[in-house]
Amino acid sequence: MGRFKDIASQRFGKLIAVERTGLKKHSSSIWRCICDCGNETLVPINYLNCGDTTSCGCNKWKGNPKDVKGQRFNKLTALYRTEDKGVSGDFLWMCECDCGTKIQVSIGRLQSGSSYSCGCEDRRGKHNMCGTPTYRSWVKMLQRCRTDEYGEWYEDVTVCPEWDTEQGGSFENFLADMGERPEGCTLNRVRSAKIYSKETCEWANASMQGFDQRRSKRNSSGRTGVRWREEREVWESRICFEGQQILLYYGDSFEEAVKRREEAELKYYGFTKE
Length: 274
Description:
By secondary structure, the chain is of the alpha+beta class. Among the domains are: 61-126, no CATH class; 225-274, GCC-box Binding Domain (2-Layer Sandwich), CATH 3.30.730. It is 22% helix and 31% strand. It has helices at residues 45-50, 107-112, 120-123, 133-146, 171-178, 206-211, 254-269; strands at residues 11-12, 15-25, 28-35, 40-44, 72-73, 76-85, 91-97, 102-106, 158-159, 185-189, 195-196, 201-205, 226-229, 234-241, 244-251.
């Protein structure tokens, strides 16, 4: 059985690990994390463990020249990177809005959702919630399902027509269904549903986000939170709650390891997983 360190719900500086994406960088698994500022970011686990990455970059943008050519950020499509930088030090990208207008936008504002159009919506008197935590969650939801950035983790996940602008939906519909995002929470698909919709989503804290994920494809025990420690020849079960890894069982009985895990799931989260 391969060794896999579960860091879901653990804190690393301003970041809380939510889920392993299935992607790797130099043999290091990449985790989706939530920053205290509300942004989401992908970070290799070794960067988190050694302290190299402790935030999404919100506290010290350094003009990351990441190539986002052709990527769509709500109504803006990135065309090419200019040599200019914004006041925060980010490179400016020439973008084209759905209305046909071209504007320069920093990569930081594109990735955070602070800039979502050329301003044509605001001029028409729309929702005027650009850059809010609720709006950023909606933008990130669309990006996860429209781009390859998150790999196979979201390859079979879709967005309901009411929320997806490419299917005639809107942010206004999303806001009416979900309400504004509570502090300390992000958008969660309940029981790892295959679609983002009013019926399948909730605002959840990082601890619940980390717990309410489908079982890893690398899990060979058949039970989330239970693994065989081959080097010690014992079964072990753990659960993570509010950033702390809790050891539940350590011994030679698989059945007892599963039982302890189920009891902990009910105690801390109110339901059991597969």
